[in-house]
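Researcher: Structure for this, please.
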Amino acid sequence: MKRLIFILSCTFFSTMAVSNAEQIEQQRELFVQAERQIGSAPLRQVEAWLEELKDYPLQPYLQQRYLQRRLNAHTDIESFLQQHKGSPLDWPLRRPFLQSLAKAKQSERFLMNFPGSSDAELNCTALEQRLLVSPVDKQQVWQEVQALWTVGKSQPKDCDGLFKQWRQVNPLQADTVLRRIQLSAEGGDASLIRYLKTLLPTNQQYLADMWLQVRKDPSVMTKGRFFAGKHVVERDILAYGLKRLIWRSPDQALKMWQRFVNDPYFIAAQRVDVQRQFAIALASKGDSRADEWMAQLPPELLDSSLAQWQVGHALRELNWPKVQKVIEQFPADLAADINWRYWLARAFEEQGQQAKADPIFRELALRRHFYGFMSAAKLGLPPSLAHNPVMVSAEELLLVQQHPAVQRAIEWLALGRMTEARREWNFLQRSVTESQKLAAAKLAGQMEWHERAIFTLADAGYWDDVELRFPLAYKDEIQRSAKGAKVDSGWAMAIARRESSFMADANSPVGARGLMQIMPATANDIAKKRVPIAQLYNPTTNIDYGTDYLNYLMKRNDGNLIMATAAYNAGYSRVRQWIPTDHALPVDVWVETIPYRETREYVKAVMAYYQIYNIRLNEPIDVFQPLVAMQIGAKSK
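Model: Predicted structure, token format:
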């Protein structure tokens, strides 16, 4: 972090005189002081700070706080919001301003300043304000209120008044309640269902109980006369339950299917939806019955997910003629995907048709991809990075550097405020042209703000600047730790790149921390003591734990790099469950048939990144050459 801030400061100062550098350091100190005191300082003092800091990039943040204390200054606020629309300076002021306008029943001004929002509370307030404006299409408003109510989660209490008005004018229909119950069951907040049950007519309340029971345990459908046949919604519950049950107990699900497949209330769209889920679930489990279900699906349902398991099921059986047939029946746009081009070539290869396989392998060997590197290794060709750097003029770079969002981001970084800096950079990406995004990525790379360079290039859809996308970040620390842990530094760097894009303060939804996304429990196990969470945000410490964990996974997986990589993502125990016990699979087949899409793509990405980093680090090892002959399964090591 300190190094990044130093580089950013140097970038900023490169166009400034030394005296200006001293001045901005003084401004930073004054800004921090003013920010700390602005909530309670006399307005006259705040105005003096604003004047003294008028040329400082972060001055608008103080102005924002100043205006939050003067919500009656409508014209000043509207001018500020117009100037900073869409930036991180916008909503922290716009929201309280809108709330004050609503409280004062200044409906027209509220609506003039309300650009729309994903905030349910504000949307409710906006609809209330529209009802106060005359003339207004109230029926349209009520339709929007119904849509806001009919969601699978609780809405803010501030919406209760609006919902009460709506229900007085439009008595609540059972179909609407049932739809909300369905949304709550299908991935929403199931605890809401008990409340929604009370809104149903007495003779339909049993449907809410059925949704709750099937969500908790879909096998309940198989016991006795679970479906009374009194309401068509029972078939919605049946379809939902079957799609869950097939993953838990295929035999029970298939038996239930036979009971209801010809039920006239089980409509065609529901049956096809269930069939598709059955086909995918059975194929991912390696169940021989998957073929039958795949064959029943109409061609228009084919998408990338279904294609994955059509090919995957044939691969798991090592049925190469079938692999070829499946891919050759794909539409042209799907068949052109590098994954399916590779597997078509493999099918030719395994059937002894090398003359058909080799041209495809040569074509793919030019690609910077897991299967591109596999193709090159098969042909004995050197891997291709296909590096094409971003070309940006000095003028374009300077123009982006002078953008207010960039200047504010640099200042936040100088103050050690990463979250605020990222918000400004994200705003920059939304507010510039595609060519300016490339310049921004280049600038971030020059500042060694690697994560922003990576994300900005991705946002621009530019994938071929290998040096920007795969920087040698934390190279010295990773090489030192990797050497101590006896793992390859290119592999460790690939893991860090995939896990966090080199964000030292990364924090995942499940609690993984830092550069290599170490779980606190993993750190505790490695250290054999309780490791303070804060230590995992220290890059050196995090890398030490990460490389030690890689060493552990390599040992647990008998030195198998692919399995160790999969285990870093999915866990050792789960990966062991995916190892065939009665036969061995070629390593590429095993990777392509990993049941979890996240882990499947993770392994492909990390191994490709490993190859890239070995080249960038001038390592002589071809990562993919050993993979060509590697097997995973009963007799593999």
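Researcher: Any notable elements?
Model: The chain has a mean pLDDT of 94. The two ends are 41 Å apart (CA to CA).
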